[in-house]
# Entry
Amino acid sequence: MSEAGTGGANRAPDGTRIVSVQGLARVEGEGSLRVEVRDGRVHDVELQIYEPPRFFEAFLRGRRAVEAPDLTARICGICPVAYQMSACAAVEDALGLSVGTGIADLRRLLYCGEWLQSHALHVHMLHAPDFFGCQDAVELARIEGAAFERGLALKKLGNQIMETVGGRAVHPINVRVGGFYRAPDRAEVAKLVGRLTDAVESALAVVQWVSGFDFPDVESDYRFVALRQPGRYPMESGRVTSSDGIDVTAAGFADLVTEEHVARSTALHAHLEGGPPYLTGPLARYALNAAELPAPAATAARDAGLGDVCGNPFRSIVVRAVEMVVACHEALALAERYEPPDPPSAVVPARGGSGAGATEAPRGLLLHTYEIDAEGLITDARIVPPTSQNQIVIESDVRRAVEASLDLGDDELTWRSEQAVRNHDPCISCATHFLDVKVHRS
Amino acid sequence: MSQEAPPTLAVWKFASCDGCQLSLLDCEDELLALAGAVRIAHFTEMSRAQTDGPYDVSLVEGSVTTAEDARRIRAIRAASGRVITIGACATSGGVQALRNMAAEGEYTQVVYAHPEYVSTLATSTPISAHVEVDYELHGCPVDRHQLLEVITASLVGRRPVVPDHTVCQQCKGRGAVCVLVAHGTACLGPVTRAGCGALCPSVERGCYGCFGPVGGANTDALAAQLLAQGMEPLDVARLFSTFYAGDEVFGRQAVTLRRRASGEKEPM
# Structure
């Protein structure tokens, strides 16, 4: 048996030591990582993304703007709700449409389901195995059976929330521009209440479990970018803010972000005006919104020793677990006070316009912008997914992790650098996809 | 079979969203039992551990969009006892098959500043256009219960029990009001393969065909009905060209409707 993370070590004729890996595992999508070490220093790090492009922004042109939520959901099967929510927000912004609190709350409930599903998947199946030296979740389940079963139950509940509100877990069918096709009955949502009550306790136990893992001592002073949504932990709306003072609307953010096409990647690299590379995702949301954590999540974060800002990417698993508490706690509150919005959708005006929408996908900020003509057809679309934005930081994280771990053997060093990628839960399917890791040393 | 080594299962990804593979991980109640019944030999999204072939069963997600992937699927076929394609991308080219209708090069230039960095084919094609496929499971995404049924059936060597009737029939079985007849809502239910459980009509939405055409689908008759209800030909064409745009039946219907629309728009 071979391991994806350890293709074995060899030496190039010039003395460069090469550790190569075919297929970085436990990430969504496909890419490769190449690290070159010369004279005990990391010479170069390249996150290569050769996931075949699927050209969404091209074929959206000429489609009806109201088709955007369903079409863009197919960019990612792990976070389709994020695509639907950002698409709705952008199209509604373009059409000058605002939805009532009933619809907004139901959207947030749906989004809580996706956060819970996606985070439970990443924490238990993709990330935790690294901390136990396991190849995968099946091995982890043998040694941490109870914790793994608890994670599966939380993941399943996330899917059940999406099925209740959205009709199905992967590519929900009930979301539309303006709201929903049909609001679920009170009785359907009420079935979630008991399960969510238990889930809050389970998620708190997950925080406790992961906070006891052994974390490499690596800290970064990240430039964080996340939504801020007054009075709430950010999810389905808000202004885009940064740790260095940016505070703009989604449209303002779209003006600040530029994307660069580099040869090694079919995902564009995003840059933000006036500063160094930036990070979106759980660490960023937490750093910029710790004050908005609901009480049980705030207590759990404090008990887990997270502090106000967490700059250790390996500890992102703890932040994700805290966000699972947020998702369960919020979903419970939303389910308990649920009244079906009537009507379930606002009327979509027949007009054109241009608009932007940003929401918080589980793995980071997701921006959509659309130009829509008077007939309601998309004339231009732009989608900036979280992994495009995080690519440059992921590369510098790998550099830092490798530099701090040069005393490790090849297999462990390779595993460590893979882990530095997995810390950020990259969705290469979103960014476009396939990781195959190569570490070169001399 | 239980006396011998467990059968090996491999999961492969081509151009896709990951949603059909995720459907396997979404089988929370059955996942560990499945992992006990087979040896998962290759499943990059789930495990670092990988074993070289041959594989008893290969599940393939995604469509072929690059020359390298066309080569890779032939190697997977050669190493696999049974190849089962899962989802709209693998069985029909997926939503990315919309490129098949565009002029060559047009799409790359819209998305990428340096089209010369991007090596991609002009078309997105199903796995069956490249190699022999033993079973095709449809859906965008696949239904996870059907996925488990197909895996189970192939492990014990019987044909999977998957319905081959229409969404319409599932809708009637569910007792849902017909959105097409009662509300005049555009619905592909009469021509779409069952499998989802008639989800869209159950939320008073028309079916958008994400399980592809049922065998013998009369799309001409449905298109005529939708046009008679006052839908614009281009909107009917859009309905037929989403997640099964690369399918021969839905794709041809969309092309016919587009031709009709451009004819109608010609100046008098």
Summary: The CA atoms of residues 13 and 61 of chain B lie 5 Å apart.
